[in-house]
Structure formats: structure tokens, C-alpha cells
Design goal:
This is Dihydrodipicolinate synthase family protein. The protein is an alpha/beta fold. Helices cover 48% and strands 11% of the residues. The longest helix is centred in the last third of the chain and has 23 residues, at 242-264.
Length: 309
């Protein structure tokens, strides 16, 4: 794993890592329900061997909210350890209440991770000023780490992100996951287009439209199944080959439609089903996710089998 080489003012290594395929690894479970550490390591090695250099343990595709605090620490430890001396950057997902998020961020720092991604606050009442306060508390606790807010709130204004970064210069990138490319374009410009690294947080389906508005990286759960497919898309987008990127988009369209159906109810389930069909891990997910019905299992397996993996 690349040591922290960004400075408090530039974070060059971290910024470069965000302008890439930002992989969100799954968390495989064993038959007894615990984290399957061997399968997890094997899946991480497969991503790294496939050219992926930015890993996000404890992301939503990793079932962050279904993991215990001890399991979240374990997943972080496994990821940092498996990355080892490879040219990889670890972006650890943190969240929940402020003390829990700070403890997770400090744990990540102790292990040698270079960045944290702050999950969207899970609270029925989120004021814009309170959003700034929440992120300021976490970012201020780990000034050595790059901090990446995960934004799903369409009501949040770009000026609030700029306010946060004025206080916390380690807020260097944004995972923007509002499904509205025009809103993203406006938000990024209100916050400062050149000030942050913009990551299309809704993965490959939104990457072409978000790149056209200023994103330079995208998150991916699909990458667990087919790293080469995600790499093909980032390479096309980097070169400005939007027709090429859309060919990849067409290739993955049905897979991502299945993940997005019914309010993304099966977002993780579809990925794990594809991995199970390839013999890479069990299909098990935790509530409130659930297994696919048989007909959709067969469709997912057929899609995965058709990719060059």
C-alpha cells in the first residue's frame, strides 16, 4: 500500500486515487453468518490483480449498516493488510454518530489508511448547518487523512461544502450520489469545481453524464464481478471517448437495472449473486437485504457469464 505522501495542503496521492474507479468491495459471509475472511481476502486480491487501486472498505456495497462495530474494524484491517505494499489507496467508510465515526476514522489512520469516506448522516432531521457540523467534527479529528463526504441529500447546497472545506482543508473530494446530472453540475460549481475531486457516486450508469459535468472518478460495486469492465469505462471516459463509454454502459445496463429496481432493494444482492454464480463467494446478504428470486438469479448468472472475466 502506498504510504501517506500527500501533504496537509495538497493530498496529491489521495486526490489521484479518487480520480479513478473507486471500488466498493462486498463483505462476504460464511455459512455460520460471520465475515468470511478468506473469501474477502481473495476478492480483494482479485480487484488488485485486475488493476483496481482505490478500495473502499465499509461502503454500502459492503453492507456497512448491517455490520457490527467489530466487523467494520475487521473489514478495514483485512483490506489494509491485503493491500500490503501494493500501489493502492484505502478509503475507509465511516459513519453513524459522531464519536463512532471519529473512532473509526482514527482506527483507519492507525492502520495506515489514507482517506475516509463519511457516509450520509442517518437521521430523520438533517439541517444544512448541522451537516457541516457533523462533517467538521470528523474531519477535524483526523487532519492527516483525506476526507470524502458521501452526499445523497438533494437539498444540500454547494456553498455548504465550500464552508466545510474552508474549516477543514483535508476535505478533498466528494462522492456525489444524487441521481440528477444537472443538479450535480450546479452543486459542483457552487462548491468549487476545481477545488475538489468529484466522484460519480452512483457508479457506471451515471458516470458518463457526471463526467461530462466535471467528475473524474466513479464508484463501483460491479467491479467486484468484472474489474475489466469498469476499467474499460474509466479509460474511455478519461480519453473523452463517450461513444466507447456508452458501449460499456449498454453492456452493463441490465445488470445495473436489476440493482436499481424497487429503490435499489437488491443493490448488493445482485452483485453477490453474480459472484456466487462464478464461485467466488456465497450469495448471503443480511437483512434488510434479501436473496433474489430464482428467475432473477438465472438472469444475473447469464449476464456475469457473458462478460470477459
Amino acid at each position: 500500500m502506498t504510504p501517506r505522501s500527500g501533504t496537509a495542503t495538497t493530498f496529491e496521492t489521495q486526490r489521484a486515487a479518487l480520480a479513478d474507479v473507486v471500488a466498493i468491495p462486498v463483505t462476504p459471509f460464511a455459512e455460520d453468518g460471520r465475515v468470511d475472511q478468506d473469501a474477502h481476502r481473495a476478492l480483494l486480491r482479485r480487484l488488485l490483480d485486475g488493476g483496481i487501486r482505490t478500495l473502499t472498505p465499509n461502503g454500502n456495497t459492503g453492507e456497512f449498516y448491517a455490520l457490527t462495530p467489530e466487523e467494520r474494524r475487521l473489514v478495514t484491517e483485512l483490506t489494509v493488510d491485503e493491500a500490503g505494499d501494493r500501489d493502492a489507496v484505502i478509503l475507509v467508510g465511516v459513519g453513524h454518530d459522531v464519536p463512532t465515526a471519529i473512532a473509526s476514522a482514527r482506527h483507519a489512520r492507525e492502520l495506515g489508511a489514507q482517506m475516509v469516506m463519511v457516509h450520509q448522516p442517518v437521521h430523520p432531521y438533517v439541517s444544512q448547518g448541522g451537516w457541516v457540523d457533523y462533517h467538521r467534527a470528523i474531519a477535524s479529528a483526523v487532519p492527516e487523512l483525506g476526507v470524502v463526504p458521501y452526499i445523497r441529500n438533494a437539498q444540500l447546497g454547494g456553498a455548504r461544502l465550500a464552508e466545510l472545506a474552508d474549516d477543514c482543508p483535508n476535505v478533498i473530494g466528494v462522492k456525489y450520489a444524487v441521481p440528477d446530472a444537472a443538479r450535480f453540475a450546479a452543486f459542483a460549481r457552487d462548491a468549487g469545481l476545481e477545488r475538489f475531486v468529484w466522484v460519480a457516486g452512483l457508479a457506471e450508469p451515471y458516470a458518463p453524464s457526471y463526467f461530462s459535468a466535471g467528475a473524474t472518478g466513479f464508484t463501483s460495486g460491479l467491479v467486484n464481478v468484472a474489474p475489466a469492465v469498469s476499467m474499460n469505462m474509466i479509460e474511455a471516459l478519461r480519453s473523452g471517448d463517450y461513444p466507447g463509454a456508452m458501449k460499456v454502459w449498454e453492456q452493463i445496463r441490465r445488470f445495473e437495472e436489476l440493482r436499481a429496481a424497487n429503490g435499489s432493494a437488491n443493490n448488493v444482492t445482485v452483485v453477490k449473486e453474480a459472484l456466487a454464480s462464478l464461485g467466488l463467494c456465497r450469495r448471503d446478504v443480511r437483512p434488510p437485504s434479501r436473496h433474489l428470486p430464482e428467475d432473477e438469479r438465472a438472469e444475473v448468472a447469464a449476464i456475469a457469464a457473458g462478460w470477459s472475466i
